[in-house]
Amino acid sequence: MMPQFHPLTVTDIHRTTRDAVVLTLKADDPDLFRFTQGQYLTFRKTFDGTELRRNYSICSGVDDGVLQVGIKEVDGGAFSSFANTDLKIGDRLDAMPPMGNFYAGTAPATAKSYLGFAGGSGITPVLSLLRSALSREPDSTFTLVYANRAVHTIMFREELEDLKNRFMGRLTVVHVLESGQDIDLFSGRIDQDKCAALFKSWINVSHIDVAYICGPEPMMMAINASLKAHGMRKDQIKFELFGASQEGLLARKAIRAKSKGAVSTAARITLDGTTHSVDMTKDQSVLEAALSHNLEAPHACRAGVCSTCKAKVTEGEFQMLINHSLEDYEVEAGYVLTCQCYPISDTLVVDYDQH
Ligand SMILES: Cc1cc2nc3c(=O)[nH]c(=O)nc-3n(C[C@H](O)[C@H](O)[C@H](O)COP(=O)(O)OP(=O)(O)OC[C@H]3O[C@@H](n4cnc5c(N)ncnc54)[C@H](O)[C@@H]3O)c2cc1C
Questions:
Q1: What distance in angstroms lies between residue 80's CA and the mean position of ligand 1's atoms?
Q2: CA neighbours closer than 13 Å in the CB half-sphere of residue 194
């Protein structure tokens, strides 16, 4: 079955900072909303006649017994402003079951050292990861480096203090603030120099088993480069990117120049057990082609950031413009983000059921 939208009721709204709320959600069918730490929900809502889909990471841990997301208001942002200003307890929201693979497994008998980096609202999945690791693995430790503009913008500040007390000695939180920190090491932005300084005097990277990074793209890239320079392997570092700059028409033009043969491609798209013949142009993404043929292909961000629209190409050549969420092994196995997948050959066979 393809992911569908299901109703949730908002049972609590907690303001964690002036411009961010934590929603507690109750599913009509809780079984559909069982999650793994670090996953996200895709909500849909219609604004002025246009349906928007937005992803929000689950911030509760797998053993907390609640489903919660944290939403930071973005200036002029449709869904985040709605959630922060209009949403009321008792309201209903539609969401798809949890998705995403921003996690490494937990194993109760092992003692691991985790290192998490979060920038601003990027704390949400990292909070779920750290809550779950601390509760599931009694011998593991977690160090969180959390970047914010100032003290008053720190989401979950009190919750993190409580967690430090609850998991005494196992959770370390390093706040790096752009303003309001006296100590140099903890002030400013997180770039490669800041990482190098932290790794020199505060965090021993050689002891870290898994690193999680979620925040603005430049920060994530700097941390990734620094962790690698300090000896971490690619497979030890996990990312979640909340937004990405959209590649526009130029990229599509480049694809058209590369594409072979006819301007159109005869695609065969399998969805929910049925295979459809879809004629598409070579500057159409597989997702666009599927939707324009009224196929209910799963999707959310349309920017290659989430993995909601993942499918497998079993035949034909294609180019994937942006990929911020599939792992290398998935790409090697033929998986694509269909919102970013453009045909090169004259035929293409795509299977959404192999998700
Ligand atoms: C996997 C994933 C997980 C995420 N998890 C979280 C989370 O846990 N918490 C969280 O807060 N966010 C999270 N996000 C980000 C979230 O999905 C939204 O992108 C964010 O909340 C903004 O959505 P919006 O509808 O409020 O803003 P949008 O309406 O999409 O607007 C975004 C920005 O674009 C500007 N804009 C909008 N329309 C136009 C236009 N026509 N011209 C020019 N500018 C325009 C707006 O002013 C605003 O600055 C996540 C994203 C991903 C991909």
A1: 7
A2: 23
| 104 in any annotated domain | no
Ligand 1 pocket check for 123: Cβ under 6 Å: no
108 located within any domain: no
Domain that holds residue 70: 6-95
Whether 55 lines ligand 1, by a CB cut-off of 6 Å, is yes
pLDDT in tens, 269-293: 999 999 999 999 998 999 999 999 9
For helices 123-136 and 157-166, angle between their N-to-C axes, nearest 10 degrees: 10
- Look at residue 178 and tell me if it is in a domain: yes
Ligand 1 contact, 71 CB (< 6 A): yes
- 245 C-alpha vs ligand 1 centroid, how far in Å? 11
Ligand 1 proximity of 75 Cβ (cutoff 6 Å): yes
Assess whether 120 and 219 both reside in one domain. Answer: yes
Mean pLDDT of 87-97: 97
Closest CA to 325 of 309, 304, 303, 340: 304
Q: For the chain, how many structural domains are there in total?
A: 3
Residue minimizing CA distance to atom 9 of ligand 1: 71
Which of 50, 67, 95 is the last residue before a domain boundary?
95
Q: How far is CA 82 from CA 20, 78, 341, in A?
A: 11, 6, 31
Residue 19 has φ and ψ, to the nearest 5°, of -120, 30
Q: What is the pLDDT of residues 98-150, one digit of tens each?
A: 999 999 988 888 899 999 999 999 999 999 999 999 999 999 999 999 999 99
Question: Ligand 1 center to residue 223 CA distance, Å?
Answer: 23
Task: Give the list of residues 6+ apart from residue 52 with CB closer than 8 angstroms, or none.
Answer: 44, 45, 46, 78, 79
Q: Which pTM was predicted?
A: 0.84
Identify whether residues 173 and 197 lie together within a single domain: yes
Q: Ligand 1: which residue has its CA nearest to atom 37?
A: 77
Angle at 201 between CA 199 and CA 207, to 5 degrees: 50
